[in-house]
C-alpha cells in the first residue's frame, strides 16, 4: 500500500473531531488556520468558538473595533495575527462583498495569509490540489523519506512542497492535507514518537536507519533577548489607576499596559524609585513606591524573555484619566498583565 493510501486510512480511523473540519465555509477555515499558527489545537479551540459566536460572519468581524478583536484574542499571543485578521476581514467584507478568493493564488494576496494558510483554505474549502507544508508535514516527510535538508531554508521548503504535491491524490487534496498534518500532530510527534505502533514503521526510512530523533534538520534559533520591564501601577485616592496604549512597532502593539520603565538589567528598588520620582509620568505627587511581587515574573516570547515586575505607586490626589478596577478589565492587555490585574490587583 502506498504512502498516501496508508496515511488517509490512518486518518479516517484516528482523526480528531474538530469544528473546522466539519465545514467548507472559508471564513471558519480561515479563522481556524490563523488561530492555529504557532498555537496548539487545545489552546486555540476556545478562541475559535468565542470568535464564531461573537462574529458569526466576516462582516461581523469587519465591523468590530480593533480593541474588541484584541480583547477576544487576549492570551492567544502573536497579536499581529489578530490585527491582520481584522484588516483582512475588512478587505473581504467591504472590498470583496464578503466573498473569499476561491483559489490559492487569490488567497495568497490576503494580508496575513502565507503559502501554508492559502493552501489549507484552498484545499479544505475549494478542494484545490495544493499542498500544505507546516512543521508537522516537514517532520513526517523528512522522517519517512530520510530528507536531511534544513527546513529553515527556502530551498528546503520548495523541495518539501514539491514532494507533498507529488504524493497528493489529485482527487482528494483536502483529506490528504488533513491526514498528513494530523499524522504529524498525533503519531509522528517531535519527541519520542511511538514508532512501534506506527502504520508506517515497515517503510519509514528514518526508522530503518535509526535517525528518527535527528530529523527533521533545523538550524538553531537565535538566542532570546532579555528585557526588563518595570510596570508602574498607580493608585490614587479613589483607588483608580492609569494605563497607556502601546504604539509603534514591536511586541503587543495596540494592547494596553501600565506605564513602564525598561532597564538594561534587574534594577534595585532604590534606583528605580529615584527614576520614577524624577520622571513622574502621573502629574501628581508620589507618596510611596513599593514592590507588589517578590522578584520578577519571567514571561517568554519567541525571541524575547521578559523579566516583569509590578511596582505600586501611591498617588496623592486624583489621577487625570484614572480608571477604576472594573473598567480596567475591559481593555485588551498582554496576558501576563491581565493575569496580574485579575489575580493581584482586584479589590
Features:
15 helices, alpha+beta, 347 residues, purine-specific mismatch base pair DNA N-glycosylase activity, Endonuclease III, domain 1, two-stranded antiparallel ribbon, Nucleoside Triphosphate Pyrophosphohydrolase, 2 domains, 5-stranded mixed β-sheet
Q: In terms of quaternary structure, what is this?
A: single chain
Low-confidence stretches: none
Fill in the CATH topology of the largest domain.
Answer: Endonuclease III, domain 1
- Which structural class matches the secondary elements? alpha+beta
- How would you characterize the largest beta sheet? 5 strands, mixed
Protein topology:
Elements: H1 3-14, H2 26-35, H3 41-54, H4 58-63, H5 66-73, H6 80-95, H7 104-107, H8 115-126, H9 135-145, H10 154-167, H11 173-186, H12 205-208, E1 225-235, E2 244-245, E3 256-257, E4 260-263, H13 269-279, E5 286-291, E6 297-300, E7 304-315, H14 325-328, H15 335-344
Parallel strand pairs: 1-7
Antiparallel strand pairs: 1-4, 2-3, 5-7, 6-7
Helix pairs in contact: 1-11, 2-3, 2-8, 8-11, 9-10, 9-11
Keywords: 4Fe-4S, DNA damage, DNA repair, Glycosidase, Hydrolase, Iron, Iron-sulfur, Metal-binding
Cofactor: [4Fe-4S] cluster
GO biological process, one term: base-excision repair
Amino acid at each position: 500500500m502506498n504512502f498516501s493510501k496508508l496515511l488517509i486510512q490512518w486518518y479516517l480511523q484516528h482523526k480528531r473531531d474538530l469544528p473546522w473540519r466539519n465545514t467548507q465555509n472559508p471564513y471558519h477555515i480561515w479563522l481556524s488556520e490563523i488561530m492555529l499558527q504557532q498555537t496548539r489545537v487545545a489552546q486555540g479551540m476556545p478562541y475559535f468558538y468565542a470568535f464564531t459566536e461573537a462574529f458569526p460572519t466576516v462582516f461581523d468581524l469587519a465591523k468590530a473595533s480593533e480593541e474588541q478583536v484584541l480583547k477576544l484574542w487576549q492570551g492567544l499571543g502573536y497579536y499581529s495575527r489578530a490585527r491582520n485578521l481584522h484588516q483582512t476581514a475588512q478587505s473581504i467584507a467591504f472590498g470583496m462583498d464578503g466573498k473569499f478568493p476561491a483559489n490559492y493564488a487569490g488567497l495568497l494576496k490576503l494580508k496575513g495569509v502565507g503559502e501554508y494558510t492559502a493552501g489549507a483554505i484552498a484545499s479544505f474549502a475549494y478542494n484545490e490540489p495544493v499542498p500544505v507544508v507546516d512543521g508537522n508535514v516537514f517532520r513526517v516527510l523528512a522522517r519517512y523519506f530520510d530528507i536531511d535538508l534544513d527546513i529553515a531554508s527556502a530551498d528546503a521548503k520548495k523541495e518539501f512542497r514539491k514532494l507533498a504535491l507529488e504524493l497528493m491524490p489529485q482527487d482528494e487534496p483536502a483529506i490528504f492535507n488533513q491526514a498528513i498534518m494530523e499524522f504529524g500532530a498525533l503519531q509522528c510527534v517531535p519527541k519520542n514518537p511511538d514508532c512501534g505502533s506506527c502504520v508506517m514503521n515497515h517503510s519509514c526510512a528514518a526508522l530503518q536507519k535509526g535517525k528518527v530523533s535527528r530529523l527533521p534538520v533545523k538550524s538553531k534559533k537565535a538566542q532570546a533577548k532579555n528585557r526588563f520591564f518595570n510596570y508602574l501601577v498607580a493608585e490614587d485616592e479613589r483607588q483608580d489607576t492609569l494605563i497607556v496604549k502601546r504604539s509603534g512597532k514591536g511586541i503587543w502593539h495596540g494592547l494596553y499596559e501600565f506605564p513602564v520603565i525598561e532597564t538594561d538589567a534587574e534594577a534595585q528598588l532604590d534606583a528605580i524609585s529615584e527614576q520614577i520620582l524624577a520622571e513622574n509620568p502621573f502629574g501628581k505627587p508620589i507618596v510611596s513606591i513599593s514592590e507588589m511581587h517578590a522578584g520578577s515574573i519571567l514571561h517568554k516570547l519567541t525571541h524575547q524573555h521578559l523579566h516583569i515586575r509590578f511596582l505600586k505607586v501611591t498617588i496623592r490626589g486624583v489621577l487625570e484619566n484614572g480608571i477604576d478596577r472594573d473598567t480596567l478589565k475591559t481593555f485588551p492587555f498582554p496576558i501576563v498583565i491581565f493575569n496580574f490585574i485579575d489575580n493581584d490587583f482586584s479589590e
